[in-house]
Design a protein that fits this description.
Blueprint lengths: L3 E13 L2 E8 L3 E7 L5 H8 L6 E8 L10 E11 L16 H6 L1 H4 L3 H23 L3 E2 L5 E2 L11 E4 L2 E5 L4 H11 L1 E9 L12 E10 L3 H22 L1 H7 L10 E3 L1 H10 L12 H8 L6 E3 L2 E2 L16 E2 L1 E5 L7 E7 L4 H10 L8 H6 L7 E7 H8 L21
Parallel strand pairs: 3-5, 6-10, 12-13
Antiparallel strand pairs: 1-2, 1-4, 2-3, 4-5, 7-9, 8-9, 10-11, 11-18, 13-16, 14-15, 16-17, 17-18
Helix pairs in contact: 4-6, 4-7
Length: 417
């Protein structure tokens, strides 16, 4: 019978008479080692008896003739090598005793060894892989944009300042201005990268550092953008359901790819909220409570297809038919775990109108020198969106809060580790 070699962390050791059972967490999954005295070499039996939780070991052995272990494949060890010992862990990694979230974050480097946590990031990896796969197949070019920038992307004070030699710089709020510059050359561009917002929001959907799927396309309509986003999400759902079946099983999630999407206007969104008891006036943007109430109204993903111009960033195109509105579209996940997944729309490419929009919002056009200058050189009509990776995972995996979708989450209260 073929000998195997497996390596991993000791999850549990249980001795029953002359038999030592070891549950081993490998990088790929879980294996049970069964060391019976008289069947395995004496030194192997002694080593097995003296192992501690979270010891990292390598084992050579052969598969058991009758696979009766419930936790995974069963191996009869012929050799055990201890590569690293471990002290008793400050949090329980077996799942028997659940630690409070702040404690889990304090020991996140241990917490991510837990199968439930590991499953989230296996799926996150698949999400990135299949997002790229989909966008490449759609003809998009992947680019990487600056994270250290000289001026605010969207205005306001939600910026993290950075000392850049003898100058003031900032961490990027998004890739917005740079992807707009690239769309004139490539037509279809995207990036998957970090964004930073110095918001002191403490909600289930906010992080100060988060990752976005940023997409921009020339000569595109709002209907094109909605269709593209829906097909992207559907593709990711289908691929994760197909390739991450064991991870979904660990999380207890049955992933159903969406079959369709719905569209509502801003006025309709207001009517839904008023019916649900919210006091919302025309012109207001939606906060976390309002978004949660809207999402609970729908089972499938849905789009809000326009917003008051006063509630949109300067780079959004204002409707020529009704200047009260801008061509912004938000994609929302439906149901109990639904949140805003993305925000996007059509961009203003007329430099005169851009300057007007900046002044209306109290911004100084001269602070956006290169960005405004480029529109003097034939930038075509275009649009795009930024979709939050962690927010999409929150809905997909029925997570209680967005922090679970970040390997090392950053919030106003969390900076370490």
């Amino acid at each position: 019978m073929t000998r195997q070699k497996v390596c991993g962390h000791v999850a549990r050791v249980r001795r029953v008479g002359r038999i030592v059972f070891i549950v081993l967490r490998t990088f790929e999954g879980v294996v049970q080692l069964t060391a019976k005295r008289g069947v395995v070499p004496d030194d192997v039996w002694r080593n097995a008896s003296n192992l501690g939780a979270e010891y990292f070991i390598c084992v050579e052995g052969k598969p058991a003739e009758r696979q009766v272990a419930r936790v995974g494949p069963e191996i009869i060890p012929g050799k055990i090598e201890v590569l690293a010992e471990s002290k008793p862990t400050p949090i329980d990694l077996t799942g028997k005793v659940e630690a409070e979230f702040p404690t889990r974050i304090k020991y996140r480097y241990l917490d991510i060894r837990r199968p439930e946590v590991k499953a989230i990031f296996n799926i996150r990896s698949s999400l990135s892989k299949h997002t790229r796969e989909f966008l490449y197949n759609e003809g998009f070019v992947e680019l990487h944009f600056p994270i250290i920038i000289a001026s605010a992307t969207e205005g306001g004070a939600e910026l993290f300042p950075v000392k850049y030699f003898d100058r003031q710089a900032y961490l990027a709020q998004s890739a917005q201005l740079y992807k707009q510059s690239a769309v004139a050359a490539f037509g279809k561009v995207f990036t998957i990268g970090p964004s930073f917002r110095a918001e002191k929001s403490r909600t289930r959907k906010h992080l100060t550092e988060f990752w976005q799927i940023d997409v921009e396309q020339a000569l595109v309509s709002k209907e094109d953008l909605m269709d593209l986003q829906f097909r992207l999400v559907k593709h990711v759902y289908e691929k994760v359901a197909e390739e991450n079946e064991s991870d979904l099983e660990i999380l207890g999630v049955s992933l159903e790819p969406p079959k369709s999407y719905e569209k509502i206007g801003y006025e309709e969104a207001l009517n839904i909220l008023r019916r649900k008891g919210f006091q919302v006036e025309w012109g207001m943007d939606f906060g976390s409570d309002e978004e949660k109430a809207l999402c609970s109204e729908f089972e499938d993903p849905f789009f809000i297809t326009e917003f008051p111009a006063s509630q949109t960033a300067f780079y959004y195109m204002v409707s020529r038919e009704d200047p009260r509105y801008a061509h912004r579209i938000d994609m929302m996940g439906g149901g109990e775990y639904g949140v805003e997944w993305s925000s996007g729309g059509l961009r203003e490419h007329d430099p005169r109108r851009l300057r007007e929009r900046m002044r209306e919002q109290g911004l100084r056009p001269e602070s956006f020198g290169w960005y405004l200058e480029m529109f003097d050189y034939g930038v075509p009509p275009h649009g795009g969106f930024g979709m939050g990776v962690e927010r999409l995972l929150l809905t997909m995996l029925h997570l209680s809060k967005i922090h679970e979708a970040a390997l090392y989450p950053r919030t106003p209260d969390i900076l370490v580790p």
